[in-house]
Amino acid sequence: MRFVPTAIEGVLGVEFDPHRDARGFFARTYCEDEFAAAGAPLRACQINLSRNETAGTLRGLHFQPEGEETKLVQCVRGKVWDVALDLRPGSATYLKWFGAELSPEGLTALYLPVGVAHGFISLTDETDLLYVMGEAYSGRGQGVRWNDPAFGIHWPREPAVMSAQDAAYPDFRP
Question: Active-site positions?
Answer without folding.
Answer: 62, 131
